[in-house]
Amino acid sequence: MKLSELATRLGLELRGDGGVEVFAPAPIEAAAPGMIIFVASAKYAPILKRSGGAAAAIVAAEFAAGAKCPLLISPNPYADFARVIGIFFPPYRPAPGIDPTAKIAPDAKLGEGASIGAFAVIGAGVTIGARAVLHPHAVIYPNARIGDDFIAHSHAVVREGCMIGDRVTLLDGAVIGADGFGYVEANGGLVKIPQVGIVVLEDEVEIGAKSTVDRATLGATILHRGVKLDDQVHIGHNCEIGEYTRFAAHVGIAGSAKIGKWCQFGGQVGCADHAKIGDRVMASAQSGLHGNIADGAIVAGTPHADMKYYRRYAALWWRIPELFRRVRAIENRSGVDRAE
Amino acid sequence: MKLSELATRLGLELRGDGGVEVFAPAPIEAAAPGMIIFVASAKYAPILKRSGGAAAAIVAAEFAAGAKCPLLISPNPYADFARVIGIFFPPYRPAPGIDPTAKIAPDAKLGEGASIGAFAVIGAGVTIGARAVLHPHAVIYPNARIGDDFIAHSHAVVREGCMIGDRVTLLDGAVIGADGFGYVEANGGLVKIPQVGIVVLEDEVEIGAKSTVDRATLGATILHRGVKLDDQVHIGHNCEIGEYTRFAAHVGIAGSAKIGKWCQFGGQVGCADHAKIGDRVMASAQSGLHGNIADGAIVAGTPHADMKYYRRYAALWWRIPELFRRVRAIENRSGVDRAE
Amino acid sequence: MKLSELATRLGLELRGDGGVEVFAPAPIEAAAPGMIIFVASAKYAPILKRSGGAAAAIVAAEFAAGAKCPLLISPNPYADFARVIGIFFPPYRPAPGIDPTAKIAPDAKLGEGASIGAFAVIGAGVTIGARAVLHPHAVIYPNARIGDDFIAHSHAVVREGCMIGDRVTLLDGAVIGADGFGYVEANGGLVKIPQVGIVVLEDEVEIGAKSTVDRATLGATILHRGVKLDDQVHIGHNCEIGEYTRFAAHVGIAGSAKIGKWCQFGGQVGCADHAKIGDRVMASAQSGLHGNIADGAIVAGTPHADMKYYRRYAALWWRIPELFRRVRAIENRSGVDRAE
Questions:
Q1: pLDDT tens digits, residue range A269-279?
Q2: I need a labelling partner for C171 at 20 to 30 A (CA). Which of A65, A82, A334, B260 fits?
Q3: Smallest CA–CA separation between A295 and chain C, in Å?
Q4: What's the whole-model pTM score?
């Protein structure tokens, strides 16, 4: 594709030779002739001044000066690079049509343009909007209601009665609405608390492979607009997750926790039940959250601490044996009794 | 439903107006006219004295005095509330019958009243008791033996030869009896140790969505009566888990560990291989267990410590930099050599 | 089976009575008449000198002296014991043949001797080598290329275009090639970065139940020859894992991390994105790795530390309150100002 054509499709300003041929997008490390890269930070800007690099680059205007290759000027180079990837390598999408092996309840309602794969199951009373893609073996339990542009990969599941907005994607094996975890001791054993609420996924939510979002005991577990879960994340019953919050793999949120908007949790973070986490909270990988956390906090460690404290004390842990020796030496030499 | 009818169905003593209409159970936070709530602790008892609250409440006798609404007196209000949820909102259960798309081996034995969903697979030599519910896409490998009142949700799997008691539930995508993880170095590579034991799940076990219970190398991995696993829990080969023990999401138990009865592990707890954990041990979220732990212990942290120690030292971590400064100041001013 | 026959099949030297009957392999704890055990370390060698133990044992030559039972002398007793397990208890393998319910694209290529289970799906353009076993409900998306002796257990998935070598096994519900986790903020929301790379699994890789190996954004996520993942492991997009490296359950490796050869990570270990971990690194359970780690390092803790430091300081944590008291006592008695 000629760079000028790409500029037109992206609606970006072209600087330099629009006739250059671009064959594929590439990460900066793989910059090479024929490739288009993006530069979004000063750290990587110098690469643009080298010869023999990429055929073209998408850059913020501030890094454009002195570049050796033609440029597309963008207010958000990474976002436009994402669009370039989609233009050169459109993600796999099966053709519309309903596989004859799919099992669809007679009263289920499916919008136009659906692509329903082999052995997919759509239960009684289900409603699904336009252009749904159910890959093979997806299962929709009865009475789920799902919006437009739904994508469910292989073995993804929506349990009975759950409600899903528009443009929601479930990756392979994701489970929406399995029973919450609740038992009460009685008669020398454990009695299960029926889990009869639902899960609500608002528009643009994406759920990673093998992640589980449990239904509420009563009421609803809610993931607001644009929440993104990586693979193998777990969300307990009755949680509420604010819009555009992102959780990396293996994050676990215990029951009834409430997480704010635009948070980002690293991998394997845990959050205690009934915790209240503010907006734009960043939690580093493996941290353990509980109680209340204020808007904008950056936390780390278990139990969690403000990142600036965590960095200081965790950096001193390895010197704790030394500190014991130093205190012992002071006690020995200054004649102070040891106060154990 | 009239409260008097509910009292009869639950077998509980009614105090006050039995003619009041109850429309649904609700958590205390959602107490409102028409709702029935439960009060099991002194903390929430005052709500009963407010006007305009719930239509009725299930309470322990000790909190009954002064209530503004009619009551059902219960020795275990939470357990009876669980029964009320099940009465008002019976969990989804498909009708009996065998879907024509299910694939059942000719020699498999199925008890009466089974409900077998679309594309379910039951292998050769399998025995399943009465009233089984296999939701769509459940797979039972050959020669598994399963008791009465079995429920397997979508994509749940029981591998070859495993043995399952009565009233066992597998949530969506749970895997019982995948290979344990064992390899030995040989000839410059790794040789797999065949995993040819089984898994035994005793009566009343419940396994969460996407949880994995590995088969034994030789012998059996055993979950005793009433064990409850949340979603995404992993149990390694040859483990033994005592009756009524509960594990929250993402708990991982390494091979050959032995865990006692009535334990409760928080989310993301890990337990080392060959550990021996006593009865009624409580482990807080993300703790890392190893070695031997005595009956009744309450532990936290990695490596695990008694909760009372953990609370004290973890609360002081953030002051470690201060302690270094204080020791340095003492050294400077008292002329003691620094003993590094 | 007579011991002499077993010796012949294994190609091992027999010492003692080859006519003894061996009925089954057993772990040392279960040594009993009729059983064959193995002894690979000095710790367990004394058991061979007791009467009434196993019928026979596989041992290293150095532990052979004084044994009360006949022996098979082996340079690697554990590996030969693994072979014995496979001889006495061959793991379940369905017969060759294609189930009539399987859905195989007309242009898919399947090698000789395949066993394709009920409701398995093989997409357009897929190539699979000889002797493949697809258990029920395995799904191969279009254009995947897979070598010989492939085994996919129930609900295992290979996504579009991924490349898999020979002798690879996927346990139940493993997902190869789901989308990597990448979004960029734009226009007040999040834009998904298309994930259009692939996953490469080289020969002899084994993936545990419910584990997820994400496809690369661009390029490939690579697991080199002989990598073994336990259940519920997650490998992020664009990672590269060196040959024969083993990860225990719940390990999570963030995007673009590079891990060396022959590493062993305990359960629930996390590794930060873009980390560079050397060869033969051992990471103890729950540790959190980041940055660069040298070949042969043994690490523990979050953030990770050299095991020898970690052991020392983690063993002193519980005494931190005592240290505060001792420093306070010194300050009080020596008249030093408290330097907080």
A1: 999 999 999 99
A2: B260
A3: 18
A4: 0.96
Which residues share a beta bridge with C228?
A: C206, C246
> B3-88: what fold?
3.40.1390
Q: In terms of residues, how long is chain C?
A: 340
The type of residue at A15 is R
Tokens of B298: 């309450």
* Closest alpha carbon to C209 in B190, A181, B176, A174: B176
Q: Do A218 and B85 touch (CB under 8 A)?
A: yes
Query: Which residues share a beta bridge with C247?
Result: C229, C265
B249 CB neighbours in chain A (<8 A) are: 181, 212, 234, 236, 252, 254
Contact B218 C27 (CB under 8 A): yes
CA distances to A109, B309, B314, C159 from B318, in Å: 57, 16, 8, 46
Return averaged pLDDT per consecutive 10 residues of chain B, 340 residues in all. 96 96 92 91 86 89 91 96 96 96 98 98 98 98 98 98 98 98 96 97 98 97 98 98 98 98 98 98 98 98 97 97 96 68
Our CA-based measurement puts residue B64 at a distance from the nearest CA of chain C, in whole angstroms, of 45
Q: Do C47 and C56 form a contact (C-beta atoms < 8 A)?
A: no
Residues of chain C falling short of pLDDT 70: 335-340
> C-alpha B289: how far from its chain's center?
19
**Which residue, chain included where needed, has tokens 């207010």?**
A75
B313 at the C interface (CB within 8 A)? yes
Fold observed for domain B97-311 = UDP N-Acetylglucosamine Acyltransferase; domain 1 (2.160.10)
**Domains of chain C by residue range:** 3-88, 97-311
- Among A215, A145, A227, residue whose Cα is nearest residue A178: A215
Tokens describing residue C196: 């259009």
Q: Which of A226, B46, A208 has the alpha carbon at shortest distance from C185?
A: A226
Select the residue from B99, B103, B181, B312 to test the C interface by mutation, using most C Cβ atoms within 10 A. B181
As beta bridge partners, residue C15 has: C71
- pLDDT at position B129, please? 98
- Nearest chain A CA: its distance from B130 CA (Å): 21
Whole-number CA gyration radius for chain B: 26
Give me the residue label for tokens 């519309």.
A96
Instruction: Please report how the helices B320-334 and A307-314 are oriented relative to each other, as an axis angle in degrees rounded to 10.
Output: 50
Q: How many CB pairs under 8 A join A and C?
A: 200
Name the pLDDT band for A336 (thresholds 50, 70, 90).
low
The predicted structure's pLDDT at residue C339: 54
Q: What is the pLDDT of residue C301?
A: 98
Q: What distance in Å separates the CA atoms of residue C312 and residue C327, rounded to the nearest whole number?
A: 20
ipTM for the complex?
0.96
DSSP element (H, E) containing C4: helix C3-10
pLDDT at A337: 57
Beta bridge partners of C116: C98, C134
- Residues C279 and C259 sit within 8 Å (Cβ to Cβ): no
Contact A44, A35 (CB under 8 A): no
CA C207 to chain centre: 7
At residue A322's C-alpha, the angle toward residues A317 and A325, to 5°, is 140
- Copy the structure tokens of residue A103: 């099992």
CA nearest to C231, candidates C206, C262, C257: C206
User: What DSSP designation does C232 have?
Assistant: T
**Phi then psi for C86, rounded to 5 degrees?**
-65, -30
Q: DSSP of A50-78, one letter per residue?
A: STT--SEEEE-GGG-TT-SS-EEE-SSHH
- The reply to whether omega before A303 is within 30° of 0 (cis) is yes
Task: Cite the DSSP H helix spans in C205-274.
Answer: none
**Stretch 250-269 of chain A: residues touching chain C, C-beta under 8 Å:** 250, 266-268
Residue A97 bridge partners (DSSP) = A115
Using CA atoms of B70, B73, B76, B80 in order, give the dihedral in degrees to the nearest 10.
Answer: -60
